[in-house]
């Protein structure tokens, strides 16, 4: 069997500025990589896939999601972040503590297959469900089964002090699963950060991450706790570096935002969550003004949908609303509106950069891994296609996701997920959901 696949005659959005985009071109996949992009490619012996009713583009990249919460979808849509009846109270302090390794496994499977179905090829799994050493094995098993490219970001539990062996578990996980480079799975650390744990604990977690060459991701500027200036303390201690992704940043002060930019940090915004749950105003303009382009992330399926179309539309609509309101009240020096092209980059190449994978994925550049999606243009929600970029950002939804390839391997074709028994996963999802709800005493919302 040939290891070449030719995606023929699609609208091709490479999102690589040197190569440009094409109204009609081909993409050649060879093994795990993109071999060539351009019109009328010759590829002897290749399997040819007709892409003439497709937009072909890099897969979406979700740069932060608490994937273990997959079995808790939409369970807290009327709950804010903070307070008595809140995300922190219900999800992190009531439901998370009763999770067994098998519940984390099923939660991850649910989230991961939902992500693939929605055209996401890379995800950073913010896995702060690590109550035992076995929880890590369970989550990594799900990540491996899914076939996605992922950063497994090992997270300390938030509902209790870390186990006395926790640091040794992390070293052990690093050794067992992440000793070789170039895998689909890479290693990260999910740190609660200095707003939620003592400074010395946050510092020692970051030092451990750096000892293990793990990418650091941290929640900062989150609601009330974010206003305490704790990131500034970390910055003054010289702990901020370019190996760190800062999540939300909604209530950070200006010094802290500038420290992130000056130290080469990356940022992920989860604007639907930030707006609906009370994290604070999405700092999109504050970062754009400082020359930093953010990535986007779904964060928690307990509250928001699992697709990047929602993410892109939410950020661009918010940024436009804020600046046009300024214009309408007569302010001068109003910033430029974001374009649809900006949003497509935030949802792809900026996600790759935030995940430390910009040389690997995020654009259709020959030599990069073949993480590719094909979006149907013959659906009644989208034809005629007049502006392919506008069509993806404002016109399409997950029903347009026809095919998904990760490292050249098809995970979804003709609108169907491949190599997965969804009935099995659905059955396990209800069993696990029933267990954690009953065990924790949480009451599902009334209807
Ligand atoms: Zn989060």
Question: Which short descriptors sum up this protein?
Answer:
about 35% helix, about 450 residues, 9-stranded mixed beta sheet, binds zinc ion, alpha/beta
What can you tell me about this protein's structure?
The protein is of the alpha/beta class and 447 residues long. The protein has 14 helices and 17 strands. It has helices at 87-95, 101-117, 133-146, 166-177, 199-211, 230-236, 254-262, 271-277, 284-289, 308-328, 340-346, 349-354, 388-395, 422-440, and strands at residues 4-13, 21-30, 33-38, 47-50, 54-58, 60-65, 120-127, 149-155, 185-191, 215-220, 244-248, 266-269, 295-296, 372-376, 401-406, 409-413, 416-417. Strands 1, 2, 3, 4, 5, 14, 15, 16 and 17 form a nine-stranded mixed beta sheet that branches. Strands 6-7-8-9-10-11-12-13 form an eight-stranded parallel beta sheet. Strand 16 and strand 17 form a beta hairpin. The protein is globular and about 60 Å long.
What's the oligomerization state? Answer: single chain
Give the helix/strand class.
alpha/beta
Instruction: Name the average pLDDT.
Output: 97
Helix segment count?
A: 14
**Which geometry do the CA atoms define?**
globular
Strand content: 15-25%
Radius of gyration (Å): 21 Å
* Small-molecule binders: zinc ion
Fraction of residues in helix: 25-40%
Instruction: Give the strand tally.
Output: 17
Give start-end ranges of low-pLDDT stretches: none
């Amino acid at each position: 069997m040939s290891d070449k696949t030719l995606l023929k005659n699609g609208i091709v959005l490479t999102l690589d500025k040197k190569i440009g985009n094409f109204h009609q071109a081909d993409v050649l996949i060879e093994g795990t990589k993109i071999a060539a992009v351009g019109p009328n490619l010759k590829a002897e012996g290749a399997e040819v896939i007709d892409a003439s009713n497709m937009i072909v583009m890099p897969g979406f990249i979700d740069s932060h999601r608490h994937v273990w919460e997959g079995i808790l979808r939409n369970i807290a849509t009327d709950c804010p972040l903070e307070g008595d009846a809140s995300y922190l109270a219900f999800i992190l302090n009531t439901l998370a503590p009763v999770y067994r390794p098998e519940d984390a496994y099923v939660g991850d499977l649910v989230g991961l297959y939902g992500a693939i179905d929605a055209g996401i090829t890379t995800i950073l799994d913010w896995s702060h469900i690590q109550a035992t050493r076995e929880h890590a094995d369970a989550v990594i098993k799900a990540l491996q089964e899914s076939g996605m490219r992922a950063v497994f970001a090992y997270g300390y539990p938030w509902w209790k002090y870390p186990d006395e062996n926790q640091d040794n578990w992390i070293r052990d996980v690093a050794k067992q699963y992440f000793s070789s480079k170039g895998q689909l799975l890479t290693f990260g650390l999910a740190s609660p950060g200095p707003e939620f744990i003592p400074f010395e604990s946050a510092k020692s977690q970051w030092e451990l991450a750096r000892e293990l060459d793990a990418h650091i991701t941290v929640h900062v500027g989150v609601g009330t706790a974010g206003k305490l200036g704790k990131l500034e303390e970390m910055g003054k201690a010289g702990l901020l570096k370019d190996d760190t992704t800062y999540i939300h940043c909604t209530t950070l002060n200006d010094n802290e935002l500038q420290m992130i930019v000056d130290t080469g940090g990356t940022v992920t915004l989860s604007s639907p969550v930030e707006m609906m749950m009370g994290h604070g105003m999405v700092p999109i303009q504050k970062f754009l003004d400082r020359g930093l382009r953010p990535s986007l992330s779904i964060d928690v399926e307990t509250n928001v949908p699992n697709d990047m179309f929602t993410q892109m539309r939410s950020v661009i609509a918010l940024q436009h609303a804020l600046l046009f309101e300024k214009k309408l009240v007569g302010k001068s020096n109003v910033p430029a509106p974001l374009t649809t092209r900006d949003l497509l980059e935030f949802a792809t190449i900026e996600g790759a950069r935030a995940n430390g994978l910009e040389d690997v994925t995020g654009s259709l550049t020959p030599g990069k891994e073949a993480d590719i999606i094909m979006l149907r243009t013959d659906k009644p929600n989208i034809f005629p296609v007049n502006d392919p970029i506008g069509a993806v950002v404002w016109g399409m939804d997950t029903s347009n996701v026809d095919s998904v390839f990760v490292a050249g391997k098809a995970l979804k074709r003709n609108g169907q997920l491949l190599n997965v028994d969804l009935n099995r996963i659905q059955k396990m999802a209800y069993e696990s959901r029933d267990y954690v709800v009953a065990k924790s005493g949480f009451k599902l919302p009334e209807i």
